[in-house]
Amino acid sequence: MITVTLAKGDGIGPEIMDATLSILNAAGADITFEEIEVGEKKYLNGHTTGISDNAWETIRKNKILFKAPITTPQGGGYKSLNVTMRKTLGLYSNIRPCSSLHPFVQTKHPEMDVVIIRENEEDLYAGIEHQQTDEVVQCLKLISRPGCEKIITYAFEYAKRYGRKKVTCFTKDNIMKQTDGLFHDVFNEVALRYPEIENEHWIVDIGAALLADSPESFDVIVMPNLYGDVMSDIAAQIAGSVGLGGSANIGQECAMFEAIHGSAPDIAGKDIANPSGLINASVMMLNHIGQNKVAENIQNAWLRTIEDGVHTNDIYDEVMSTKRVGTRAFAEAVIANLGNLPKQLPSVTFEDNSPLVLPKYQRKPAKNKKIVGVDLFVDWHGEDANMLASKLQKLNNDELELVLITNRGVKVWPQGFKETFCTDHWRCRYAAKDGKVLQKRKIIEILKSALEHDIDAIKTENLYTFDGVRGYSLGQGQ
Ligand code: NAD
Question: Which residues are paired to 97 by β-bridges?
Answer without folding.
Answer: 115
